Amino acid sequence: MKNKFIIITNNPLVKEELGGLYNVEYFEISYEDILKTVRDRIYKGHELLTHPLSGSVKPNETPYKSIMISEDVRGLM
To answer: Is residue 75 part of a domain?
Structure first.
């Protein structure tokens, strides 16, 4: 079964635990830079699959963020 998503993260544990099972792109960058990286991918046509803001964890409480986006780029006009 082929996964149709990419996990973009700055969390080394996500890379370690899920990297062998899923397409994980790990970056040693800040929380804010992960959001910018995902934003740039969305501008290129990827679809956002998970909400970038956590429900109960505030951004200043954790330095890590993992976001799923589509693997394929949808056609843009």
So the answer is: no
The rounded distance, in Å, linking the Cα atoms of 17 and 63 is: 18
Element (H, E) at 6: strand 5-9
Q: What is the number of domains present in the chain?
A: 1
User: Is residue 76 situated within a structural domain?
Assistant: no
pLDDT of the chain along its 77 residues, tens only?
456 999 999 999 999 999 999 999 999 999 999 999 999 999 999 999 998 877 676 667 788 999 999 998 876 54
Domain region containing 49: 5-70
d(CA 49, CA 30): 21
